Amino acid sequence: MKRRRVAVAAGFCFSLFVGTLVNLLFVPGFEHHQQGRSQRHISPSAATELPVSNPRVELHSQIQERYYEVVRYQRHRANPTRLLEGRRLMDLALRSPATDRLTIREHAREMTTPLGCRDLDKVTSLQYLGSGYTKAVYKASLNATFSVALKSVDFGGHDMDSCVRKYASPKDCYRLASYKIVKEMILLQRLKHPNILKLYGYCYQDNSDIKDTLTTITELGAPLEMIQLLQTSWEERFRICLSLVRLLQYLAHSPLGSIALLDFRPRQFVVVDGELKVTDLDDASVDETLCSSSADCFMEFPARNFTLNCSRQGYCQGMNEKRNLYNAYRFFFTYLLPHSAPASLRPLLDEIVNSTGELRWGIDQTLAQLEKVLTLYQSGQYLRNSTPDVSHSDFLPVTGSAIVGENYRCWPSYHHEGCLLSVFNVGEAIAICESHRQCRAFVLTNQTTWTGRQLVFFKSGSAKLAPDASKVTFLRVK
Fold first, then answer.
1. Per-residue DSSP letter, 196
2. Three-state DSSP class for 331?
3. Where would I find the Protein kinase domain in this sequence (predicted)?
4. What is the set of active-site residues?
5. pTM
6. Residue 36 and which of 122, 172, 273, 317 are 20 to 30 A apart at CA?
7. Nearest residue to 363 via CA among 304, 323, 311, 308
8. Is the pLDDT of residue 438 over 60?
9. Is-contact 310 291, C-beta < 8 A?
């Protein structure tokens, strides 16, 4: 059994190495880190380039700061005074590294998770998905029907590479990087929300160089591809934005306090069954910015700057919440919300985009307005005074039939080779067919979208009418 686990661990490490090389060569934004990284582990001798007065104290101080951050999240303690904490960290900078490693493992043992090291022995296939500055991510199949994501420290990533070059201590550099994974693991367990990735488990294993290497096991999602998302229906794009705002509203009022996603980019999210979920929480923060005046509450973005109020308690009011909201505006709302939306909903959607872009609204009001849009869309109220009066007598229903072929393309469509749209009722389907020059018929399917709307195939002809008990075809007769 031991030999088997060693073999599996060796295979995992080899896959980690191969995946790291693939990422370095092909992932945008990492070109400047490629030079001199042909080996998985950096030689300690390479760390003589940047001399420091006491590198051991400096590195251990960073480790202690990461450690105490993890402890704060583990104990549900939000936003302690950072100045006092800073003095304590400096006093403890030279504390034994073995002590905090043991404590972190004790924290991990308190977690109740369904999967662990034994389950990694059952992995039937391993596929590299990508990596960032700290972590590498893999898809692991545990059986024929269940796959998970595995996250571990990327030994050839930016964080490990720069740390080893500077401090010449691969083991301590691994500990520094691994605390980001431990922090994320604790947050995934502490924060329970449908739009936060599920934590399934973790595994501590020893390899030939470093003890207690950590792998987390999480829910598997599909990468959020913005270019592909722009080509989907408005209904699906609206779902992504609604998922995001529901998440940000939870983070603004979380049990740990208001949480900011400091690394807020589309690549930090995945899609699971059509729902947006945040996957990277290692750069999340509950610390509100301290201030003595509003001048200290300055938020700078590429296109806009904002100055917030300084509270009597000495911190910037709502900075975490508003930072998240403006990032949602600039990365998601401007691209996904207004375009190809139903005409009667566009004024409200434009107001949502403009109000978040100016930070006139907070997250609660933004969510309330998006939920209003959902209600109008889901109930069909948006169709009032917007759907032309078209007589049903212009279309002949043929129950239990469908049309084979006879497709034409429209945008946006749920089908790349045909015109497949969602409708609230037959009246809306007739109105759409009337508005399409090519449309001569449409087929009501037995499929619905996430809002309960029916999917309809619009057709350019009806020559290939065929029996289909689950469908109803409407033929245009005038």
1. B
2. helix
3. 123-396
4. 263
5. 0.80
6. 172
7. 323
8. yes
9. yes
DSSP state of 287: P
Torsion of CA 286, 287, 293, 296, to 10 degrees: -100
pLDDT of residue 440: 95
Q: Which residue has 């899609």 as its token pair?
A: 271
With residues binned 3-state (H G I as helix, E B as strand, rest as coil), the percentages for the chain, rounded to 5, are 45, 20, 35
| Helix (H) or strand (E) run with residue 147 in it | strand 147-153
CA atoms in the 13 A half-sphere facing the CB of 415: 15
Distance CA 366, CA 136 (A): 34
Is residue 412 reached through a cis peptide bond, with omega within 30 degrees of 0 on the bond before it?
Answer: yes
Residue 272: the pLDDT is 95
Which of 313, 310, 319, 355 is CA-nearest to residue 334?
355
- Which two tokens mark 177? 């990087």
Predicted confidence band of residue 87 (pLDDT cuts 50, 70, 90): very low
Token pair in block for residue 13: 């490490």
Instruction: Give dist(CA 304, CA 320) in Å, integer.
Output: 16
C-alpha pair distances (Å), 305 with each of 102, 264, 299, 300, 358: 44, 17, 6, 5, 10
CATH code that applies to domain 392-476? 3.50.4.10
What are the residue ranges of helices labelled H in 219-281? Answer: 226-230, 234-252
Residue with the bigger pLDDT between 107 and 315: it is 315
Alpha-carbon span 154 to 163, nearest angstrom:
12
The three-class DSSP label of residue 435 is helix
The SS3 assignment for 278 reads strand
List, for residues 366-390, the tens digit of each pLDDT value: 999 999 999 999 999 999 866 555 5
Task: Give the max Cα distance, the chain.
Answer: 87
Query: Tokens 């309330």 identify what position?
Result: 368
List pLDDT tens digits, range 277-322. 999 999 999 988 999 999 999 999 998 999 999 999 999 999 999 9
CATH topology of domain 2-220: Phosphorylase Kinase; domain 1 (3.30.200)
Tokens of 475: 């033929």
Residue type, position 75, single letter:
R
- Distances in Å between the Cα of 88 and the Cα atoms of 57, 75, 102, 186, 386 are 14, 18, 20, 23, 65
d(CA 216, CA 181): 8
- pLDDT at position 454, please? 96
Task: Calculate the average pLDDT of the chain.
Answer: 82
Conformation bin of residue 333: beta by default, left when phi > 0, alpha when psi is -120 to 50: alpha
Are the beta carbons of 343 and 417 closer than 8 angstroms? no
Q: What is the rounded CA–CA span in Å between residue 123 and residue 142?
A: 5
For the domain with range 226-383, which CATH number is right: 1.10.600.10, 3.50.50.60, 1.10.510.10, 3.30.70.360?
A: 1.10.510.10
